[in-house]
Amino acid sequence: MTQRTQRHSILRSHLPVLAGIMRGIEKEGLRVDGHGMLAATKHPVALGSALTNPQITTDYSEALLELITGTHTSVPALLAELENVHRFVAGKLNNELIWNQSMPAHLPPEADIPIAWYGTSNTGMLKHVYRRGLAVRYGKAMQCIAGVHYNFSVPDNFWEILGTEGATPEEKRSKGYLALIRNFTRYSWLLMYLFGSSPAVSARFLEGTAHNLLALDDDTLYLPHATSLRMSDLGYNNKAQSDLQLCYNDIETFLKRVYDAVSTPWPPYEAMGTHRDGEWIQLNTNLLQIENEYYSSIRPKRTVERCERPATALAARGVQYIEVRCLDIDPTAPVGISAQTSYFMDAFLLFCAVEDSPYFPNNGFCRDSQDNFALVSKSGRQPGLALVNSNKPIALADWGREILERVLPYADLLDAAYGGQNHVQAVLAQSPKVADPENTPSAQALRHLRDERLSFHDYTLRQSRAHHEALRAQPLDNAIQQQFLAGVASSLQAQTDIEQSDTESFTEYVARYHAALKKPVAA
Fold first, then answer.
1. CA 90 to CA 76: how far, in whole Å?
2. Which residues contact 505 (CB under 8 A, 6 or more apart)?
3. Facing residues of 338 across strands?
4. 421 pairs with which residues across the strands?
């Protein structure tokens, strides 16, 4: 019996553990006006405080909504909450709607893109100044790119059942999640191929920027075989971070490299300084202002308390869950992700958690995995495309079929735990995409643009308006509506309370926040 078969057998005898898997979603989306222009309005008061409302906040821009679910033990419950949040928001947007695409709507000049505002408290100002720093470092347009973040965790006894090494539950959990991340890094190119939905972008987004995209029409640029321009070097890309390679072999080395990145000055940022004309423009002049500035397709996560640093929380209490950050918004789904995609993600992540996951060589860096991901993002549908697996070339289609075959038994385990065949069907539904690139969402998106002779902007605006109207046409149950309204009121009061409780200056608060970063134990 192979180790893989043995693990399957063990998990099949512990199906209730699999039924305890938790998943949650954070879905971003720009507010736009009726013409698809970025909304210039403030975050609506009717949605509560962006600082303290746990379900409705903003990301980078004041116009970039982030809609957040709690964690759920089933996909239907997860998507039901996500839909309810969308329906509540749709009902409160006056003459605006959510842009249901990862690449931005028509943006105003950089200076006119509003940075998210969280009030006058020190906590709120820290979030705001951090975003000012993102603006001066990377530009505002890049920060308007949106996506879907998929959070995933397993019960602690899952790692016990698999025999994960570690003296404490926290050690086993952290080692298990890092092993999951290593496998995710190896195979996440497949997610770009299967679910990438941003092969085109408005020409205005790249105005004044050198690029190699082709013109589909006067307002649309694209790459003929791209799957996700959002996750290519046209999206989240930064010179300062290009040499930063985090290590997922062990938590100690990971935290050491994070610490170095958030505590090491970067000369171009030093030249900017932290203030301009007497106002803060960035939190510090280090390579990263804070840990979350590092752009990655997956992150080990741990909930933090007020003024607690993410790295400090990870060092103290270990990894709690993982956050997948590379999923494009599904423009065909009113809430940005379909149930089928969610079922597939659960099976794929379980596969990543259970399969053997050797350490990465070269000081924890896997160049082949990074190159595969980048290549598929920009050229994934290219006929005959070859990737690199274990230093050997392999056809994308062959490797894709192999991975789906390996994921399928995990989907079967999940179906045994939950009942039905949703997970297996979700995996099987991906086979036609691997067999023929024309079945992928990115190919279908380009086909719609060509067949309907619509620009990327006009097509996305039409879809976004249709989704908006469909959501508004289904009023929330009164009890659920009242829960949202109570949450709005509570969040506004919570922001006021925080603002009134501050007893130190913002400069003192920033100094205390930086001092809260603890140097990790040497790996």
1. 21
2. none
3. none
4. none
- Single out the residue of 516, 481, 519 nearest to residue 126, CA to CA: 516
pLDDT tens per residue, range 130-161: 999 999 999 999 889 999 999 999 999 999 99
Three-state DSSP class for residue 224: coil
Helix (H) or strand (E) holding 418: helix 396-418
Q: Render 150-192 in DSSP notation, one character per residue.
A: EEEE--HHHHHHHT---SSHHHHHHHHHHHHHHHHHHHTHHHH
| 286 phi and psi angles, rounded to 5 deg | -85, 170
The encoded tokens of residue 47 equal: 């949605």
Mapped onto helix, strand or coil, the DSSP state of residue 103 is coil
Residue at token pair 């602690």: 156
CA–CA gap between residue 51 and residue 49 (Å, rounded): 5
Question: Tens of pLDDT along 476-502?
Answer: 999 999 999 999 999 999 999 999 999
Q: Count Cβ atoms below 10 Å from residue 520 Cβ, excluding itself.
A: 20
The helix/strand/coil state of 221 is strand
**Is-contact 55 112, C-beta < 8 A?**
no
Q: Would strands 96-99 and 321-327 be described as parallel, antiparallel, or unpaired?
A: unpaired
Quick: pLDDT tens for 192-248.
Answer: 999 999 999 999 998 888 889 999 999 999 999 999 999 998 765 555 566 677 789
Surface-to-core class of residue 500, CB atoms within 10 Å of its CB (0-12 exposed, 13-18 middle, 19+ buried): exposed
Pair 262, 519: CB distance under 8 Å: no
Q: Which of 8, 16, 116 is nearest to 417 (CA)?
A: 16
CATH number of 3-154+169-515: 3.30.590.20
d(CA 144, CA 64): 7
Residue ranges of domains in the chain: 3-154+169-515
